[in-house]
Amino acid sequence: MDIREIQNLIKFVSKAEVSEVKYKTKDFEITIKTPLYTPENTGFAQPVQHSFPPPVHSPMVAPPPAAATPAHPEVPSQPETPAEDESKFITIKSPMIGTFYRKPSPDKDVFVGVGDAVAPGTVVCVIEAMKLFNQIESEVSGKIVKILVDDATPVEYDQPLFLVDPS
Protein backbone atom coordinates (compact mmCIF):
# COMPACT_ATOMS: atom_id res chain seq x y z
CA MET A 1 0.00 0.00 0.00
CA ASP A 2 1.53 3.32 -1.02
CA ILE A 3 1.05 6.75 0.59
CA ARG A 4 -1.68 7.81 -1.88
CA GLU A 5 -3.74 4.74 -1.03
CA ILE A 6 -3.29 5.44 2.70
CA GLN A 7 -4.32 9.08 2.22
CA ASN A 8 -7.39 8.01 0.26
CA LEU A 9 -8.28 5.53 3.01
CA ILE A 10 -7.98 8.27 5.66
CA LYS A 11 -10.18 10.60 3.56
CA PHE A 12 -12.75 7.84 3.14
CA VAL A 13 -12.84 7.09 6.87
CA SER A 14 -13.25 10.76 7.81
CA LYS A 15 -16.10 11.24 5.32
CA ALA A 16 -17.82 7.95 6.18
CA GLU A 17 -18.20 9.00 9.84
CA VAL A 18 -17.24 5.60 11.20
CA SER A 19 -15.37 5.17 14.46
CA GLU A 20 -12.76 2.61 13.39
CA VAL A 21 -11.43 0.91 10.26
CA LYS A 22 -8.85 -1.87 10.16
CA TYR A 23 -7.08 -2.87 6.98
CA LYS A 24 -4.75 -5.85 7.02
CA THR A 25 -2.76 -7.71 4.40
CA LYS A 26 -0.03 -10.31 4.66
CA ASP A 27 2.74 -7.75 5.32
CA PHE A 28 0.85 -4.55 6.19
CA GLU A 29 -1.68 -3.48 8.79
CA ILE A 30 -3.30 -0.11 9.49
CA THR A 31 -5.97 0.89 11.99
CA ILE A 32 -7.67 4.27 11.69
CA LYS A 33 -9.77 5.45 14.63
CA THR A 34 -11.92 8.56 14.57
CA PRO A 35 -14.45 9.90 17.05
CA LEU A 36 -18.00 10.17 15.83
CA TYR A 37 -19.21 13.77 15.96
CA THR A 38 -20.77 14.89 19.23
CA PRO A 39 -21.28 18.42 20.62
CA GLU A 40 -18.56 17.67 23.18
CA ASN A 41 -16.07 16.89 20.43
CA THR A 42 -13.15 19.33 20.52
CA GLY A 43 -12.43 19.12 16.79
CA PHE A 44 -8.78 18.13 17.27
CA ALA A 45 -7.40 15.26 15.25
CA GLN A 46 -7.42 11.93 17.04
CA PRO A 47 -4.48 9.55 17.01
CA VAL A 48 -4.03 7.45 13.92
CA GLN A 49 -2.45 4.19 14.92
CA HIS A 50 -0.60 2.18 12.36
CA SER A 51 1.71 -0.73 12.50
CA PHE A 52 4.20 -2.06 10.06
CA PRO A 53 6.36 -5.06 10.82
CA PRO A 54 7.62 -4.40 13.48
CA PRO A 55 4.68 -2.54 15.13
CA VAL A 56 5.13 1.20 15.44
CA HIS A 57 2.87 3.40 17.54
CA SER A 58 3.04 7.18 17.27
CA PRO A 59 0.31 9.02 19.17
CA MET A 60 -0.49 12.52 17.95
CA VAL A 61 -0.55 15.39 20.42
CA ALA A 62 -3.38 17.88 20.13
CA PRO A 63 -2.15 21.32 19.10
CA PRO A 64 -2.13 24.07 21.74
CA PRO A 65 -5.06 26.50 21.69
CA ALA A 66 -4.65 29.35 19.22
CA ALA A 67 -3.03 32.46 20.68
CA ALA A 68 -4.75 35.85 20.40
CA THR A 69 -1.61 37.42 18.93
CA PRO A 70 0.20 36.11 15.85
CA ALA A 71 2.78 33.54 16.90
CA HIS A 72 4.69 33.69 13.61
CA PRO A 73 6.22 37.08 12.80
CA GLU A 74 7.14 36.00 9.25
CA VAL A 75 3.42 36.08 8.35
CA PRO A 76 2.73 39.73 7.53
CA SER A 77 -0.57 41.06 8.77
CA GLN A 78 -2.86 41.36 5.79
CA PRO A 79 -5.73 43.78 5.41
CA GLU A 80 -9.09 42.08 5.10
CA THR A 81 -10.27 41.82 1.52
CA PRO A 82 -14.00 42.25 1.01
CA ALA A 83 -15.71 38.93 0.22
CA GLU A 84 -16.96 40.09 -3.19
CA ASP A 85 -13.37 40.80 -4.33
CA GLU A 86 -12.25 37.27 -3.38
CA SER A 87 -14.44 35.78 -6.11
CA LYS A 88 -11.88 36.78 -8.75
CA PHE A 89 -9.12 34.87 -6.93
CA ILE A 90 -8.20 31.22 -7.37
CA THR A 91 -7.91 29.14 -4.22
CA ILE A 92 -5.10 26.65 -3.65
CA LYS A 93 -6.59 23.94 -1.44
CA SER A 94 -5.08 21.21 0.70
CA PRO A 95 -5.04 17.86 -1.11
CA MET A 96 -4.81 15.97 2.20
CA ILE A 97 -5.23 16.03 5.95
CA GLY A 98 -2.09 16.96 7.87
CA THR A 99 -0.02 19.78 9.34
CA PHE A 100 0.65 22.86 7.17
CA TYR A 101 4.17 24.30 7.03
CA ARG A 102 5.27 27.38 5.08
CA LYS A 103 8.98 26.43 5.26
CA PRO A 104 10.89 23.33 4.18
CA SER A 105 12.58 23.33 7.61
CA PRO A 106 12.67 25.68 10.63
CA ASP A 107 15.96 27.30 9.57
CA LYS A 108 14.90 27.95 5.94
CA ASP A 109 12.90 30.76 4.33
CA VAL A 110 9.20 30.42 3.52
CA PHE A 111 8.27 28.90 0.16
CA VAL A 112 6.03 31.83 -0.84
CA GLY A 113 4.73 35.01 0.71
CA VAL A 114 2.06 37.57 -0.10
CA GLY A 115 2.96 39.28 -3.38
CA ASP A 116 5.10 36.40 -4.68
CA ALA A 117 4.47 35.12 -8.20
CA VAL A 118 3.67 31.44 -8.63
CA ALA A 119 3.42 29.22 -11.69
CA PRO A 120 2.29 25.64 -12.15
CA GLY A 121 4.80 23.45 -10.32
CA THR A 122 5.91 26.13 -7.84
CA VAL A 123 6.11 24.61 -4.33
CA VAL A 124 3.92 26.75 -2.04
CA CYS A 125 4.08 24.74 1.20
CA VAL A 126 4.52 21.28 2.71
CA ILE A 127 1.91 19.21 4.51
CA GLU A 128 3.06 16.60 6.99
CA ALA A 129 0.91 13.49 6.99
CA MET A 130 1.95 10.36 8.87
CA LYS A 131 5.54 11.58 9.32
CA LEU A 132 5.87 12.24 5.57
CA PHE A 133 6.40 15.78 4.27
CA ASN A 134 4.45 16.27 1.04
CA GLN A 135 5.35 19.25 -1.13
CA ILE A 136 2.25 21.06 -2.36
CA GLU A 137 2.64 22.69 -5.76
CA SER A 138 0.62 25.45 -7.35
CA GLU A 139 -1.50 24.37 -10.29
CA VAL A 140 -2.12 27.96 -11.42
CA SER A 141 -0.13 31.04 -12.42
CA GLY A 142 -0.55 34.31 -10.61
CA LYS A 143 0.36 36.26 -7.49
CA ILE A 144 -0.25 35.18 -3.88
CA VAL A 145 -2.69 37.70 -2.37
CA LYS A 146 -3.54 35.97 0.89
CA ILE A 147 -2.27 33.13 3.08
CA LEU A 148 -5.29 31.59 4.78
CA VAL A 149 -3.56 29.20 7.23
CA ASP A 150 -1.06 29.84 10.03
CA ASP A 151 2.24 27.97 9.96
CA ALA A 152 2.37 24.62 11.82
CA THR A 153 -1.40 24.25 12.12
CA PRO A 154 -3.59 21.27 11.22
CA VAL A 155 -5.45 21.38 7.90
CA GLU A 156 -8.29 19.31 6.53
CA TYR A 157 -8.76 17.81 3.09
CA ASP A 158 -9.87 20.50 0.60
CA GLN A 159 -9.26 23.35 3.07
CA PRO A 160 -8.31 26.64 1.35
CA LEU A 161 -4.61 27.49 1.92
CA PHE A 162 -3.81 30.40 -0.42
CA LEU A 163 -5.64 32.92 -2.60
CA VAL A 164 -3.99 33.59 -5.96
CA ASP A 165 -4.73 36.54 -8.27
CA PRO A 166 -4.49 35.07 -11.78
CA SER A 167 -4.35 38.47 -13.55
UniProtKB/TrEMBL annotation:
<dbReference type="Pfam" id="PF00364">
    <property type="entry name" value="Biotin_lipoyl"/>
</dbReference>
<dbReference type="InterPro" id="IPR011053">
    <property type="entry name" value="Single_hybrid_motif"/>
</dbReference>
<feature type="domain" description="Lipoyl-binding">
    <location>
        <begin position="89"/>
        <end position="165"/>
    </location>
</feature>
<protein>
    <recommendedName>
        <fullName>Biotin carboxyl carrier protein of acetyl-CoA carboxylase</fullName>
    </recommendedName>
</protein>
<feature type="region of interest" description="Disordered">
    <location>
        <begin position="62"/>
        <end position="86"/>
    </location>
</feature>
<dbReference type="GO" id="GO:0006633">
    <property type="term" value="P:fatty acid biosynthetic process"/>
</dbReference>
<keyword id="KW-0443">Lipid metabolism</keyword>
<keyword id="KW-0276">Fatty acid metabolism</keyword>
<dbReference type="InterPro" id="IPR001249">
    <property type="entry name" value="AcCoA_biotinCC"/>
</dbReference>
<keyword id="KW-0444">Lipid biosynthesis</keyword>
<comment type="pathway">
    <text>Lipid metabolism; fatty acid biosynthesis.</text>
</comment>
<dbReference type="GO" id="GO:0003989">
    <property type="term" value="F:acetyl-CoA carboxylase activity"/>
</dbReference>
<keyword id="KW-0092">Biotin</keyword>
<comment type="function">
    <text>This protein is a component of the acetyl coenzyme A carboxylase complex; first, biotin carboxylase catalyzes the carboxylation of the carrier protein and then the transcarboxylase transfers the carboxyl group to form malonyl-CoA.</text>
</comment>
<dbReference type="InterPro" id="IPR001882">
    <property type="entry name" value="Biotin_BS"/>
</dbReference>
<dbReference type="InterPro" id="IPR050709">
    <property type="entry name" value="Biotin_Carboxyl_Carrier/Decarb"/>
</dbReference>
<dbReference type="InterPro" id="IPR000089">
    <property type="entry name" value="Biotin_lipoyl"/>
</dbReference>
<keyword id="KW-0275">Fatty acid biosynthesis</keyword>
<dbReference type="GO" id="GO:0009317">
    <property type="term" value="C:acetyl-CoA carboxylase complex"/>
</dbReference>
